[in-house]
Design brief:
Blueprint (H helix, E strand, L loop, with lengths): L2 H9 L12 H11 L3 E3 L2 H9 L4 E3 L5 H12 L20 E4 L10 H6 L3 E4 L7 E2 L3 H25 L1
Parallel strand pairs: 1-2
Antiparallel strand pairs: 3-4, 4-5
Helix pairs in contact: 4-6
Length: 160
Amino acid sequence: MYHRLARWLRMLGYDAVYDQDFVDQDFIQLAKDENRIILTRDEDLKRRAQKLGLQAVTIDAPTIEERLIILQKELGVELALPKKKLPRCTICNSEIRLIDIEEILEQITEQTQLHYKEFWICKNAECSQIYWRGSHWEKMERTLKDCREIIALDKSTNKD
């Protein structure tokens, strides 16, 4: 699976594991042990996984938009950011929790403190990544909206 795609999936609320040091057998073993879906551009890995009864999807597309569209079509991945809470850390895949700004004042800039009021922190003490809905959130929303529009257009043109 792609590192950037794993981060996107985590932002969408999906438990996505990625390790650049994994070899094919590592992905297969993890999929077996944890009932995971393998996302790959390697057709050989996909075939080997499927022979073992594992679910595997080919994601061979150059852009994140195309990859997300494939995931929506193949697996029904919902292309919308969560409204209430951020579900997973994009760095380590752990859950994140709401945190009071007072607890992180020294870790965020004054500008961030002025413009944002809701913050989350990774529950993994080794990570402790801090999140807020900044301009990156708006960019992600636009990207997902574009993906949904492409899917809708594709569905309407394929009806004819």
